Amino acid sequence: GMDTRERDKRLERFLAEDGAVMVATIAFGMGVDKADVRFVIHADPPGSLEAYWQEIGRGGRDGEPAEGITLYGPSDIAWTLKRLDGRPMPDEVKAVQVRKARQLFAMLDGATCRPQTVRRYFGETGADRCGVCDICQDPPALFDATVPAQKALAAVQRLGERFGKTRIVDHLLGKTKDVQPWETALSTWGIGADIASHTLRDVIDHLMFEGLLVEDPNDGKPLVRLGDPEAVRAVYRAERAIEVRLTPARVSAPRERVRNGRNAALETMDDDVRARFELLRNWRRERAAEQRVPPYVIFQDKTLLEIALAEPGDLNALEHISGVGQSKLDRYGKGVLAALAASA
Fold this sequence. Notes:
- There is one protein chain.
- Among the domains are: about 140-250, Orthogonal Bundle (Arc Repressor Mutant, subunit A); about 260-344, Orthogonal Bundle (DNA polymerase, domain 1), CATH 1.10.150.
- The chain is about 55% helix and about 5% strand.
- The chain contains 19 helices and six strands.
- The protein has helices at about 5-15, 25-30, 50-55, 75-85, 90-110, 115-120, 135, 145-160, 165-175, 180-185, 195-210, 230-235, 250, 260-270, 270-290, 295-300, 300-310, 315-320, 325-344; strands at about 40, 65-70, 140-145, 215, 225, 245.
- Strand 4 and strand 5 (about 225) form a beta hairpin.
- Residues about 250-270 have low confidence and may be disordered.
């Protein structure tokens, strides 16, 4: 490391000069009393919300505005957990440290006011929004990612937790490169074909931040595994909603073309077909909530779209629609016909 004399010299310059930038460890920051620090930038995320709050608190101690910036990504949570796993400590202590790390990443990738989130974490239930953080100043676009999350979790489980993120996304999209016959026989094969690939990646990243999925380093070949069992079940049963932030690139970029052409069909269909499709989706959502299963388990969107287009009048006609097998016809056929009748 740097010798004491050189370190002291640089500290003196940092304390005395205006506009000085100091690149250092957290230990340095905690030992410095400089009131007019304007920026605190974390090149790596801290280990907990407690550490984050204390460290960014070094900025703006003179009462003037200061900015805290934290650089992070999905690989950081995996690295943090690996680092904790390698430390000699009792299991109960390690579990606490892991939970604290996940709470930090959930805040970083969340969509609520930063100070409000941290203050609520510390027990201030009545904490108001600050009005000045990045979330308050430029609220992120969100989308309901519960169904994509359910599909991703199911795919990880069906694949036996043996693959990384890229392979899981390819599986959900139904991509055929290097695929084995056993994989195409799985119920999760291609169930995400109506979702853009970048959206699936964003959802998987968010599930990692939330602890619903975990990444096993696996000697440099990361594998994605299921995380907290109770949390996974809550999402799978639609008892817990998942909302994911849309990054600026995702908001402005055109949606990728989907394999089943659902988007194009929605854009060109007439109002009556659209109304039937939305009614069928509402019917499916209600059934899924009753049965505590993801909606796609009942019928996928492409099947509902074909039903809306064909408008079958009886069970025999419904049976001939792709995606309506005998078991689903027996279980849901009358309900589908009743929903269609209600839209007439």
